[in-house]
Design brief:
single chain; about 150 residues; 5 helices; mainly alpha
C-alpha cells in the first residue's frame, strides 16, 4: 500500500466511525423523540424529530465519501455497534432535561470525531471530503447549541 492508500484507508476508517456514531445518534434522538414527556413535550418532540432527520440526511453522504475513497462502508447493525462510540440509552424513563444534556454531549462528541476526520481528509488530499465535513460539523454544533439553549428552561 502506498502512503496515499494508507491515508485514504485511515480517512475511510474515521468516516466509518463517524457514520456509526451518526446512526447511533440518529436512533437515540428518535428514541428521545418518541419518549419525551413533560411541560415542553411539543417543543422537544418536534426539535428531536428535526434533529434526527438532519442526522439521517448526512449518513448517505458520509458512506459515499468512504466509497469514493475506494473503501467499504458499514454493512449492518452489528457493524455499527462495533464501531460506535456514542452510547445507547435503553433506560425506560429519561427526564427531558437529561435527554437534552445527553444529546448535546453526543453531538459535541460527533463534532470531535468530525474534526479528526477533517484532519485525515487533509492528509489524504481529499478536498471534497474536507469541505463537506465543515457542513456536517456546523450542523452538529448547531444541534448542540439548540439543545443547550433548550436546557436553560428545562
Amino acid at each position: 500500500m502506498t502512503t496515499g492508500d494508507n491515508a485514504r484507508k485511515a480517512l475511510a476508517d474515521s468516516l466509518n466511525a463517524v457514520l456509526a456514531d451518526s446512526f447511533a445518534l440518529y436512533f437515540k434522538t428518535k428514541n428521545f423523540h418518541w419518549h419525551v414527556s413533560g411541560p415542553h413535550f411539543r417543543d422537544y418532540h418536534l426539535m428531536f424529530d428535526e434533529q434526527a432527520a438532519q442526522i439521517l440526511l448526512t449518513t448517505d453522504a458520509i458512506a459515499e465519501r468512504v466509497r469514493k475513497n475506494g473503501q467499504r462502508t458499514l454493512t449492518s447493525i452489528a457493524d455499527i455497534s462495533k464501531r460506535q462510540t456514542i452510547a445507547d440509552n435503553d433506560a425506560a424513563k429519561v427526564s427531558a432535561e437529561d435527554m437534552l444534556t445527553e444529546l448535546r454531549e453526543d453531538n459535541l462528541a460527533l463534532v470531535a470525531s468530525l474534526r479528526t476526520a477533517k484532519e485525515l481528509a487533509d492528509e489524504a488530499g481529499d478536498n471534497a471530503t474536507d469541505g463537506i465535513i465543515d457542513e456536517w460539523t456546523d450542523q452538529a454544533e448547531q444541534r448542540a447549541w439548540f439543545l443547550l439553549e433548550s436546557s436553560q428552561n428545562a
